[in-house]
Every structure is written in C-alpha cells, then in structure tokens.
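Fill in residues.
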C-alpha cells in the first residue's frame, strides 16, 4: 500500500517545472514529448531565462513565475518537476509538498544526507510522493543486465570503470569533489540496484591531475563493502583526455554462476563457466523510455498506481550516503562506516527540524 496520495483522473498530469537552465531545457523537451503529462508552468528566479528556454524549444501557453506554489495554484497543477541547483532542492521541494503536490526531483536529492532525510520526512508527513530522478537507472540495456542476475547467483563483485573528458563551465568546475558528488552518485546508485543490498563501508581516494580544469578532485577510486559481503569498485575520471567510456561507465558483475558485462551503452553479455570463449549476447529491447524519460514514466506510473518507486526519497538516501561517506574517506584517508554517516545525519536532521510533523517522522526512521 502506498504512503502517498495517488492521482486517479485520466487526463495528462499537469506539471510545473522549477528550473530553466541547461538541465531544465532537457526536462522541458522530455515533458513536451510525453503524452502522459502536460507542462502548464515554469518557475525560475530569472524569468528571462525561463522565457528564453520556452522560446528556444517553441513552447507557448505556459505560466511563468518565481514561486512554485503560486504558479501551481494559478495553473491547477498536479505535480512538480524540480530541476533547480542542488542547494535549492530542499526549499523548493518543501514548498511544493506543503502546497499538496508530489515532486520528481533531479539528483542529488540534496547537498547533504541530513537535508535528504528532512525532505523525505516532509513528504511522508504530508502524504505526498517525493521521488529522486536517478536517471541512469533507466536504460533498456541495464534492465536486460539486471534480468540476468538470477542466472549468476549471489553477486559477489561489481566494478565500474568511468572515463570521460567532461567540460561543465560553472559550479561543477568549482566544486571540491565534482566527480564524486555530481557524477559518481549515478554509478553508486546503480550498484545498489545491481547488488540488491545496502552499502556498509567505503575506502576512497581522490586526486586532481595537473592538467585538470576542475578546482576539486576530478579522479576518484572507491571500494565499497555491501551487506552480505559483496564489493563494489569504482574507478573514474572527468579529465580523461584519451580513451572514453560511455557516460554510464563500463560494468562487470560477478557471481558464482558467471559474469555479466555491460558496456554502458547497448551491449550486454553473459560469460558462464565452461564457455568463456563464447559469451552470450543478450537482446536489448528498443523503444523503451530511457534516462529522464524513463524517470518521468516511473513517476507518473507510481502516482497512478500507488506503487513505491525504486528511488522514493527515503530509499534514495542510501545512494547519497554512499557519496557522503566516500567524500569523508577521501578527506580523512580512513575507512568510513556508512551506517554511522546516516546516524549522524539523521540526528542532526532531528535537531534542526522545526516542523513538528516532519520531526516526528524523522524520529521514527
């Protein structure tokens, strides 16, 4: 049974989007292409940016404003898509939730695990769905790889190699831990989906090559232990000027019954004991909504059915905790206990939360 209100009318969901920057434009295109939703409002602190985004995409008849709740009330919106910068996620999400609206929020959920807990609890207290868009869970090839997991038995080892030459002028190039915080959360989140248990601890090392155009560390290398003993190894760089992987990275998943490989694009294969020279190529279906289109599809489907999405905010806290723990390990050089990171963040969330209903939910976590 769902813990959030569902929507049972049969017309497209009326969407207000918050954020009209670069990623906001990608969401505007996605919403416009999905017949199950209708864009009715666009919110941005810079209304000229909002107007330019709509004009660029040829979208008209959309209400503009600087307040999610005001634009939602004006348009009779059913839901909000939050594509603001991470530091704005908590206030924008809470404003939308307080207005009685479910929210699909871009990753990361918040800049800290503490604030991720607070907004997840606010959603629960208000009986609304808050889902985090971990868009790289939504690939037909990843679905095909996950479907093969029963055939290799318990997963014991997962490894991702991620190498890209990434140029993102703006706040990403000024971050202290750009790769871990802005990108690796995608791979960490997929690792949780593949392994099927929760992370226990991490050892992480970072560095920033001499030629890097980032202020913070653009290379990272992490080893996670998961409940049940599985290990996840991430090796990545945002300043790889040579060979490039797919944006999902290249994946190897090992178990007693063999190995699953995914190239991060559309090639999935299984190598079984006794047939190493004859990998089994797995068919990948076409026409499946992927990335943010897949995320939007799940959000709408869950609002219709009441099913709990894979990345409901309370569940997604675990992925953000992996990032926070990896950053702490990189800064201290020590193995970090992820449960302790979560306990400390939850205690701080309870201490600073001013809303009684939200605090009551936090105290139950």
């Amino acid at each position: 049974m769902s813990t959030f209100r569902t929507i049972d009318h049969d017309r497209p969901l009326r969407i207000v989007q918050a954020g009209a920057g670069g990623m906001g434009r990608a969401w505007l295109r996605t919403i416009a292409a999905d017949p199950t939703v209708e864009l009715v409002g666009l919110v941005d602190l810079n209304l000229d940016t909002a107007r330019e985004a709509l004009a660029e995409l040829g979208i008209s008849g959309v209400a503009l404003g600087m307040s999610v709740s005001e634009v939602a009330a004006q348009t009779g919106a059913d839901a909000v898509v939050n594509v603001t910068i991470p530091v704005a996620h908590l206030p924008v999400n809470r404003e939308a939730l307080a207005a009685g609206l479910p929210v699909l929020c871009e990753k990361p959920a918040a800049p800290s695990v503490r604030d991720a807990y607070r907004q997840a609890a606010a959603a629960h207290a208000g009986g609304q769905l808050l889902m985090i868009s971990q868009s790289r869970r939504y690939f037909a090839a990843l679905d095909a790889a996950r479907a093969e997991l029963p055939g290799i038995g318990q997963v014991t080892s997962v490894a991702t190699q991620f190498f890209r030459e990434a140029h993102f002028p703006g706040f990403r190039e000024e971050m202290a831990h750009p790769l871990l915080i802005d990108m690796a959360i995608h791979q960490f989140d997929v690792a949780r989906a593949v392994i099927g248990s929760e992370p226990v601890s991490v050892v992480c090392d970072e560095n920033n090559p001499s030629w890097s155009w980032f202020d913070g560390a653009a290379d990272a290398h992490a080893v996670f232990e998961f409940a049940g003993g599985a290990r996840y190894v991430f090796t990545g760089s945002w300043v790889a000027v040579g060979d490039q992987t797919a944006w999902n990275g290249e994946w190897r998943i090992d178990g007693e019954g063999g190995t699953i490989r995914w190239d991060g694009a559309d090639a999935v294969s299984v190598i079984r004991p006794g047939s190493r020279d004859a990998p089994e190529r797995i068919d990948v279906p076409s026409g499946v909504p992927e990335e943010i289109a897949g995320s939007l599809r799940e959000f709408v489907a869950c609002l219709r059915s009441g099913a709990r999405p894979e990345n409901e905010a309370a569940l997604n806290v675990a992925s953000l905790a992996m990032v926070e723990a990896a950053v702490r390990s990189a800064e201290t050089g020590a193995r970090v206990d992820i449960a302790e990171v979560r306990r400390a963040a939850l205690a701080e969330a309870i201490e600073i939360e001013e809303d009684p209903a939200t605090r009551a939910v936090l105290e139950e976590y």
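The chain is about 40% helix and 20% strand.
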